TrEMBL record:
Family: Belongs to the phosphofructokinase type A (PFKA) family. ATP-dependent PFK group I subfamily. Prokaryotic clade 'B1' sub-subfamily.
Record keywords, A-Z: Allosteric enzyme, ATP-binding, Cytoplasm, Glycolysis, Kinase, Magnesium, Metal-binding, Nucleotide-binding, Transferase
Protein name per the record: ATP-dependent 6-phosphofructokinase
Single GO term (MF): fructose-6-phosphate binding
Pfam hit, one: PFK
Domain Phosphofructokinase as annotated: residue spans: 4-277
Compartments in which it is found: Cytoplasm
HAMAP family named among the record's database cross-references: Phosphofructokinase_I_B1
Quaternary assembly: Homotetramer.
Length: 320
């Protein structure tokens, strides 16, 4: 019988994590559970850094970016001995179950704890949209809005100066932020882990857009960890009619007030997490698939292939 539920946020923070914390807390309290907030992800969990949560603790956080519980990366949490220590600390604090809000790495920690007897439910909180088992992660929509706003602004100035803006977006080896932004902004080129990267092709295409199509500007949206964007911008200036400029959007993409869509997604997922724990389920993650809140074992989610994005890339190609 579960009496006290813990909540933690782990990995890179994402807008909407607070909405999830609020939903888990309020639904759990309404069902008669006690709730403890665990600070700074698995680090706070191991150190016993816990705070009691009541209804007012989660007031005024729905609209706030980041995570009020703090987040961290603790590599040592992969170690079985550390996990056992964490379980002991949780038992001392009488925490019987945990909702883990984070990415795939955080899910693995949740799976490990469940195997050691603490039922955990994972909620997908990351701007990268790189977690299998859900169509959308909490934070993706807000980050996409941030990227689109920035690219729209870059387009204005690029157009005035006959420039090509190379915009690097996050994604941690997942191209979703880049391709969704590229479609939303009418970018000329998108480069992601899915498209691959050939510098000569990019330069040739830009020369064509300049000379044949007579574009006043060009936008290249590129996922992080693929190329040195300053170097690419230099090559564009040297080898095409555009002056190249690179912008790395960086951590600005992780902040900001969550979009209504992320708030609702997080709230629905938070509710589902508590429902699952009440049913005695552990080691599952919550997802939104075809507009329905679902759940599946974390193991299954992490081993299933990601949905194909072919349709999105085909659409992009047909629109340029
Ligand atoms: N295999 C694992 N076993 C146990 N714990 C893990 C494992 N992998 C990661 N973790 C824990 O989860 C934390 C977060 O993982 P990671 O840094 O991969 O981020 P994430 O949850 O994938 O989020 P994001 O990628 O969006 O930033 C790690 O610092 C570690 O504490
Ligand atoms: O905040 P950090 O540790 O620099 O991590 C950055 C990484 O985290 C994310 O923002 C979220 O996973 C990735 O997009 C990015 O690669
Ligand atoms: Mg990850």
């Amino acid at each position: 019988m579960i009496r006290r539920i813990g909540i933690l946020t782990s990995g890179g923070d994402a807008p909407g994590m607070n909405a999830a914390i609020r939903a888990v807390t309020r639904v759990a309290l309404a069902n008669g559970f006690e709730v403890m907030g665990i600070k700074d992800g698995y680090r706070g969990l191991v150190e016993g850094n816990y705070i009691p949560m009541d209804k007012s603790t989660v007031s005024d956080i729905l609209n706030r970016g980041g995570t009020v519980l703090g987040s961290a990366r603790l590599t040592e949490f992969k170690d079985l001995e550390i996990q056992k220590k964490a379980v002991q600390t949780l038992q001392n604090a009488k925490i019987d179950a945990i909702v883990v809000i984070g990415g795939d790495g955080s899910y693995r920690g949740a799976m490990a704890l469940t195997k050691l007897g603490i039922n955990c439910i994972g909620l997908p909180g990351t701007i990268d949209n790189d977690i299998p088992g859900t169509d959308f992660t909490i934070g993706f929509d807000t980050a996409l809005n941030t990227v689109v706003e920035a690219v729209d602004k870059l387009r204005d100035t690029s157009s005035s100066h006959h420039r090509c803006s190379v915009v690097e977006v996050m994604g941690n080896r997942c191209g979703d932020l880049a391709v969704w932004a590229a479609i939303s902004c009418g970018a000329e080129i998108v480069i992601t882990p899915e498209t691959g990267y050939d510098e000569l092709d990019v330069l040739e295409r830009l020369r064509y857009l300049d000379k044949a199509v007579k574009k006043r500007h060009a936008i290249v949206v590129i996922s992080e960890k693929i190329a040195d964007v300053d170097e690419l911008a230099r090559k564009i200036s040297q080898n095409t009619g555009f002056a190249g400029r690179a912008t790395v959007l960086g951590h600005v993409q992780r902040g900001g007030s969550p979009s209504p869509r992320d708030r609702v997604l997080a709230s629905m997922m938070g509710e589902k997490a508590v429902d699952l724990l009440m049913e005695g389920v552990g080691g599952h993650c919550v997802g939104m698939i075809d507009n329905k809140v679902t759940s599946m074992p974390i193991e299954e989610a992490l081993s299933s292939p990601r949905h194909s994005r072919k349709d999105l890339y085909r659409l992009f190609d047909r629109l340029v």
